[in-house]
Amino acid sequence: MKEIPFTRLPTKLIYALDSDLLKMLAVLIQQESYWIEHKKIGDDGSFYKPIKEFADSFRRKNLQDVRLILQTLQTEGFIHIISSKGGKQANYYRICWDKIATYNDMKIPQLIQSPMIRTAKRASKKKVEDDTVSYQQKENDSTEPYQQDNELIVQDCTPTIDNIINKNNNNITIDNSVITKSPLYDEYKKRIEELLSDYQQESDYIISLGKYSKIETILELALKHIPTSEIEDYQYQLSEISTMHDRAGWNIKLDNITEEMMKKYHTINIHNVKSPKSPQQFKLIVNDLLDKAGLYIDCGHWEELADNVEKWITHQWERDIISYDLQQETIDKVYTKLAS
After folding, report:
1. Does 86 have pLDDT greater than 60?
2. What is the DSSP code string of 124-188?
3. Residue 85 lies in a domain
4. How many Å apart are CA 87 and CA 221, to the nearest integer?
């Protein structure tokens, strides 16, 4: 019988959590296992997963619904949401295994007779558009807020502009006509949108990688001035543009293929480096690239090519296509071939 991949799931929680919470916990456990396997897990047991990937798993377009499931797991003590790790991404997660272990001594009949832990319901304060729906919170909620700074604290599960806690008087302002916001709000939004547009139009794949990193950095800085929901919408746009670039691939000019050769052999002087979907495909693509470089790229360009290939390889590791060990092994192989 063919081996079937599976995710370990605490048995007792099957009877304690509703279906959304249980599925979300399973997705988080699988992600934790993946990061451990690939030696990327944080020293504190934390790991990253974009909010959009959670939304895709639940087939939900509304990111607020996904945040609410995560927030409920944190409220109940099953996970810890960590904001801003390493200056690049918005949220990391850590599973609270000690909390999960407390269910080991409970009998299944006892859990069945107890109230099920359910995802907190959301309720709108007014009839507003879907992206400005506010979530009702328990008064003494101990969860950490998604975003804080010296002027404003955006409420835990309401990362929208129109629901802001004013730190000076602790009053929540919910007023679509009078909105308290950072003085840098408009400047950051304008800059982010300019960078996203520039990134989308960039035709050079390697240059686009640098622009991607620049946008990640400014999104992290903008967390102090723009609500988390808007940041995550920008991250979604960034992810979509990145996917577009990955699908297009990286075009490398083969400068040893002349006009005469192109006419005679009906070929072109561009080699498209496709984005791999597996480690096996990654190895084939790299080997093909190195073969093409040896035959059709002037050796005077090899050092520059090696630097660019290293960036491309690192990007495949960041995409979780290859392991850290394969990344280092392949970079060594490339420099041995091209920069010796």
Report:
1. no
2. -SSS--GGGPPPP--TT--PPPSEE-SSEEE-TT--STTSEEETTT-PEE--SSS----TTHHHH
3. yes
4. 8
Number of domains in the chain: 3
Are residues 287 and 323 both part of a single domain?
yes
Q: Single out the residue in 200, 230, 248 at which a domain terminates.
A: 248
Closest CA to 291 of 259, 334, 257, 232: 334
How many angstroms separate the CA atoms of 54 and 63, rounded? 9
Q: What is the pLDDT of residue 2?
A: 63
CA distance 161 to 322: 39
The sheet carrying 147-148 orders its strands as 147-148, 152-154, 164-166, 172-173
* pLDDT score for 122: 60
Return the axis-axis angle of helices 51-58 and 19-37, rounded to nearest 10°.
130
- Higher-scoring residue by pLDDT: 284, 135: 284
In a domain, 216, yes or no: yes
Q: State the average pLDDT for the chain.
A: 79
| Cα dihedral 37, 41, 45, 46 in deg (nearest 10) | -130
Sort residue 297 into left (φ over 0), alpha (ψ -120 to 50) or beta.
Answer: beta
For 104-110, what is the mean pLDDT? Answer: 90
pLDDT above 80: residue 138? no
